[in-house]
Write a structure and sequence with these properties.
InterPro entries: ATP-grasp. This protein folds into three domains: 107 residues, Rossmann fold, CATH 3.40.50; 68 residues, Dna Ligase, domain 1, CATH 3.30.1490.20; 144 residues, D-amino Acid Aminotransferase, Chain A, domain 1, CATH 3.30.470.20. The N and C termini lie far apart (62 Å). The longest helix is centred in the last third of the chain and has 33 residues. The chain has a seven-stranded mixed β-sheet with strand order 13-12-9-10-11-14-15. It has a four-stranded parallel β-sheet with strand order 3-2-1-4, sandwiched between helices. It is built from 13 helices and 15 strands.
Length: 449
């Protein structure tokens, strides 16, 4: 194992409120096992990651979103560290974009931390889905055809042009307001659905994109993880195949395997090299079954939640490579462990229930299995996740009959009685409407509670 500078702590920051973000736990375990003190800025001290023995301290998520919240959180963590240097690692797009803006402040709190020397504005460029599509066109990187409608009628016309179903996604998904019910990506199956999504553009905070849907195919979904050092060299790089996902066929990696894919690795290395990217990167690709070409679907300027799949026999992964590089330690070459598997217990179970057919395993010798939540040396987060996940599913199940009941209550609500002709007397056909009469009742169709 490489020798780490354990005097330099690591600060993991995530604005996303999702308590089941297993990538945060993976990063804490990876660095903590190497002896690095780990501080986590996450949703709440009650999250499963806060139960990890490898977390030195869990700091509360800032009340504000965006750069203001990250600025406040970093100032508090820096004070807790007494100004000592620490490696800073964003774990979601919202945090990565906020750090990109805060780095421009000459006396901002980011200056107190160790971060990759990223080209100015590049993080925001690749995280924005519309800007990424334009960048791919400029660089000649295969990318699904993507259109940006100006209004609802154009959205419907573009849907007809692209063909249904299509992928509808928001350009800057980190701006979606919590509790809105809006999802970052939706598989739209009708022009009406596309119109309804476009109508919520102001609420979403960014433009709606319509993208040609590449159907899932056997062994067609791949991802690339890498770390580009301070000199721009992609020293740690690996490709993996998505075996199971949640939602099935179009979501995050529930089960993955480390497997070679020279075409995907060549595309990924070429793209990050052309952009001059620095730091940890996670790219998603899907093969077009008609042409066989791999198309870039997503560019995440931070570790993917499944990054621990690519941990070699010496424990090296992209997060450890970041710490080594930023503390001036040499980064060794990654030892390929083809056949190694990674499974996210809660999402893998849902994927199996939705699609129980067995999936083929990757070629090559088995490189072992790592689970996202359970670890023999750190079992507490798995127990905390199981309790929280059970409560989460119970709330979701209970919400179904409640919605049905509310819908039925609305249908059964009495219709306000209209004045009868017998009560008011017939009005002559030539007589004008009585402007002094009260308007019809505007009472809600469902009873107040």
């Amino acid at each position: 194992m490489p020798l780490f500078d354990t005097r330099v702590a690591a600060v993991l920051v995530r604005l996303d409120r999702n308590p089941f973000h297993h990538g945060t736990l993976g990063a804490a375990r990876s660095l903590g096992r190497a002896g690095v003190p780990v501080h986590v800025v996450a949703g709440s001290p009650g999250e499963p990651v806060a139960r990890s023995r490898y977390v030195r301290r869990c700091h509360p998520r800032p009340a504000e979103d965006g750069p203001a919240g990250v600025r406040r959180a970093l100032a508090q963590v820096s004070e807790a560290l007494a100004g000592a240097p620490a490696v800073l690692l964003p774990l979601d797009d919202a945090t990565a974009v906020a750090l990109d803006e805060l780095r421009r402040e000459p006396d901002g709190p980011v200056r107190r931390f160790l971060v990759p020397e990223q080209p100015r504005g590049l993080t925001s460029l690749v995280a924005d889905k519309a800007a990424l599509a334009a960048t791919c066109r400029r660089l000649g990187v295969p990318h699904p055809r993507t259109l940006v409608p100006a209004d609802a009628d154009e959205a419907a016309a573009m849907a007809a042009s692209l063909g249904l179903p299509l992928v509808a996604k928001w350009s800057r998904p980190w701006l979606l307001p919590p509790g809105s019910g809006l999802r970052s990506t939706v598989l739209a199956r009708s022009a009406r659905q596309v119109r309804e999504l476009h109508a919520r553009g102001a609420e979403a905070g960014s433009p709606l994109l319509l993208q040609r849907y590449l159907p899932a195919s056997r062994d067609g979904d791949w991802f690339f993880h890498g770390y580009c050092d301070s000199a721009g060299a992609c020293r740690v790089a690996a490709t993996g195949r998505k075996v199971r996902s949640w939602p099935d066929g179009a979501g995050l990696t529930a089960v993955g395997t480390w497997a070679p894919n020279p075409a995907v690795e060549r595309l990924a290395r070429g793209l990050v090299g052309a952009l001059g990217y620095r730091g940890v990167v996670d790219l998603d690709f899907r093969r077009d079954p008609d042409t066989g070409a791999y198309h870039l679907l997503d560019f995440n300027p931070r570790p993917g939640a499944q990054f621990r799949l690519f941990s070699d026999p010496w424990g090296l992964d992209v997060v450890r490579a970041l710490h080594l590089d930023l503390t001036g330690r040499p980064v060794p070459d990654l030892v390929r462990s083809y056949g190694r598997r990674f499974a996210v217990e809660n999402y893998a179970a849902l994927s199996v229930l939705a699609s129980p057919r067995p999936r083929a395993r990757g070629a090559g010798p088995s490189g072992g299995l790592e689970t996202a939540w359970y670890a023999a040396d750190d079992p507490a987060p798995a127990l905390a996740m199981a309790r929280a996940w059970t409560a989460h599913l119970a709330r979701r199940v209970w919400a179904v009959p409640r919605r049905v009941w509310h819908a039925g209550a609305g249908a059964r609500a009495p219709i306000p009685a209209q004045p009868s002709a017998r009560a008011t007397g017939p009005r002559p056909a030539s007589a004008p409407p009585d402007s002094s009469a009260p308007p019809p009742s505007s009472a809600p169709s469902t009873p107040r509670r």
